[in-house]
Amino acid sequence: MSEIIAKRSAAQMAKQALFLLFRIGSERYALRATEVAEVLPRLPLKPIAHAPHWVAGVFAYRGAVVPVIDLSALTFGKPAEARTSTRLVLVHYRADEDQPGQWLGLILEQATDTLRCNPEDFQPYGLDNREAPYLGPVREDAQGLVQWVRVDDLLDDAVRTLLFPSPPRDPAQLEAQS
């Protein structure tokens, strides 16, 4: 009997996933930990001219220039507050499965806690929010609702092109095509 209970417990643990919790104002949100590359302190950023107000800028990280968005400004139009718990979270962003992943920085408030749960605990909330496709299902716990943020759905085509312009084409390739 104890062997059956141990197998069930192991199966339940296998379904568990780790999420990084953060807040936008008083609301709780979660990112799947497998999408997080690193949690950094808030760093100075170089602004990008004529970018949307929620594009916070870029910074250099391990030889790459990484664009950063302020998730609070994107979601509710108000920049994240500069708190000691406000972090720059580096995530793996992939526009589609045919493209290689790229780093994207997110400014997140109170990004200091984690949650381990079954991803199936998150349920649709009954609203097709086309203006915020990155806001996924919700999960209820003793503290209220927490909403899953889907990293790969954060940027629309126009902003993706601004932040991740396609690399210049090799002149030899252009000559071969003509």
TrEMBL record:
InterPro entries named in the record: CheW, CheW-like_dom_sf, CheW-lke_dom
Top-level taxonomic group: Bacteria
Domain CheW-like: 16-160
UniProt xrefs under SUPFAM superfamilies: CheW-like (SSF50341)
Family annotation (PROSITE patterns): CHEW
Annotated GO biological process: chemotaxis; signal transduction
One GO CC term, this protein: cytosol
Classification via PANTHER family: CHEMOTAXIS SENSOR HISTIDINE KINASE-RELATED, PROTEIN PILI
Protein name per its UniProtKB record: Chemotaxis protein CheW
Organism: Pseudomonas shahriarae
